[in-house]
Amino acid sequence: MSRRHKEQETESNYKPQQAESRADGSHERDYSFKYKLLNFTITKRDGTKGSFSIDKIVSAITKAFMKASVSDEIEVDDKYLKIPLKYVNENIEEVQKKSKGGRNPVKRLFSRISDSKVVEYFHNTLCAVKEKCIELYESITQYSTCFLKAANQYFSPEDDPYGKISHYHRILKCEVVELPTRKTLNNWLRWFEDWSPAVTYEDRNKKKQRARHSLWEMLIDWIKKYLMELAPEYAVAY
Question: How many CA atoms lie within 13 A of 114 on its CB side?
Fold first, then answer.
């Protein structure tokens, strides 16, 4: 299809509705557009093509009208409606970001319990660990990682704890003086999840890692059981 033919087709399918006159003789823009095509293909100078749904293009046009001051940036003549490219680019960037998907931001660590309550349980459980099973305790880094793992299994076992690390760190960083960084928490949780025993020979380091992993498993199990005593109303989620 030739460029002229495409322009004519676009013209015939995009017709701004006629402006309505006000009582004072001025005109009020009508920002609605009629369109029939489902997709719009743009050919770049390098020959590559990009396809965008028509409703997104119309959205960009509408945004331009809404943002542009009166008629400073928009030109309309007998054949063309000219809109600064920045409005189209801005809209396309928004569409591309949405199309990439990704996790929704975490607003609460666990849906059925407030973050403040989680922080309270964090402190209470830490005190209990140090009083009742100090032999399982290594450091605040170990405890922080194990608490997240255990609490996630108890309060929300269907969720993935990795997506919550940033939020978990955010609600604790002002409450725990020696709290490790978010990256450190992520690395240690990854280590715990990915660790596997050696198939055959174990050197000294492998044995040490196995002993540590076993210790962490026992601490996680202890924390879960303690949370059942501390918050029995959530036992159904366990």
Answer: 3
**Mind listing the pLDDT tens digit for each residue in 53-75?**
666 666 666 766 666 554 466 67
Long-range contacts of 167-175 (CB under 8 A, 24+ apart): 167/106, 167/107, 167/108, 167/109, 168/109, 171/109, 171/115, 171/118, 171/119, 172/119, 172/122, 172/144, 175/119, 175/122, 175/123
The model's pLDDT over 82-104, given as tens digits with 9 standing for 90+, comes to 766 655 555 555 544 554 455 55
pTM of the model as a whole: 0.55
Q: Are 161 and 148 in contact (CB under 8 A)?
A: yes
| Contact predicate 87/63, CB 8 Å | yes
